[in-house]
Design goal:
64% of the residues lie in helices and 0% in strands. The chain has 100 residues and is mainly alpha-helical.
Amino acid sequence: MQKRWYDLDPTVNLAINLMEKADEKVQLECAYHIIDKAKDYGIKITDSDLSEAFNYLFRRWYDKNKQLHDAFEYLKLAPHDVQLGLAFDIIDKLQPPEEK
C-alpha cells in the first residue's frame, strides 16, 4: 500500500492529524503559519504543483479550503528538516498540554 507523503514521518503525521481534528479557525491559523514560514525558507509552489494537486480536488480533507490546500502543498515541497520544524510548531499549538 502506498503511503501518503505525510505518513513517511511520524512527527509530520501527528501534526497533520491534529490539524484535521482542529476547528476550521485553528486550521486556518496553522495554514497561514505554514505558508508564511515556508515562504521565509524560500519554498515556492508553482502553477503546475497546484494543477497536479487539483486533480485530486475534494478527495482529501484539506482540499475544502484553498489556504489549507496551499499550506499542505508548501509543506509537501519543503525539505524534511523544514517539515519537521513546522510539524513541531503545529503540535505545540494543537496538542493538549497534558499530552506533551
